[in-house]
Queue: 2 jobs
Job 1
Amino acid sequence: MLTSRLPGRVEPYKLAAHAEHLEGLVALGDMPRLADEAGVQNGDAEVWLDFAIDAQGRREIRGRLTAELQLLCRRCLSPMPQSVESEFLLGMVSSDALAASLPSTHEPVLVEDEQLNLLAMIEDELILSLPQVVYHDEADCAVSRDQLSSGESAESVSDSPAENPFEVLKQLKGKT
Ligand SMILES: [Zn+2]
């Protein structure tokens, strides 16, 4: 269990030169792009990073992260806890143009003025590791299998009866 926090920015070339290991927590609430993708999140991601220079002289970061997110169930649209885990291998590049020179084993990570925005890097990795779609187990879901098989969606279950086209029709007929 990690307790310390990772810094928001680091000097990655120095860390790689010294083969440093960093580990710590990163606040999920500080990630607006993750919030756009998956809704506002609370809590922390746990992150482990190893900086190194490989045999080809590339500066790289091997990392792992885990996080407990609250993602919307596609069936009932209420939040459900979902564990996300990712392992990654990043190659540092000083411009987007240099990213093409990396082997396919490495994802590029941009280092500007010898600074690396760790928060943005972890946010990118989290977004990449989001599952496409999540569902509750049937027993836990607010939308039961019966409702699904009768063709009712989550919206129509919770909406008022006036949304029902037959009810609307009745009201219209009553007026004439
Ligand atoms: Zn559900």
Note: The mean pLDDT is 87.
Job 2
Amino acid sequence: MSPGQRSLLFREVNDRIYDLLESGEPDLPGEFLCECGRECGRRVELLPAEFASLRGAGEPVRSAECEGPRLLAPALG
Ligand SMILES: [Zn+2]
């Protein structure tokens, strides 16, 4: 699976997690998958509202460890 495909899949999974949280416990944070596209296996704890605002801004969910300029390196393809 390419990094791009993996991030797309993880985005879909996160959307499902969000739907579940939103309809169940909207005031509690949930664990979303890091959408960096690598096999980092990290989870990102976000409130449903925080996730919604990331989506609204077109920002991917990224763990703190996966944030940063190195992600923009062309080698990641
Ligand atoms: Zn990551």
Note: The first strand starts at residue 30 and ends at 33.
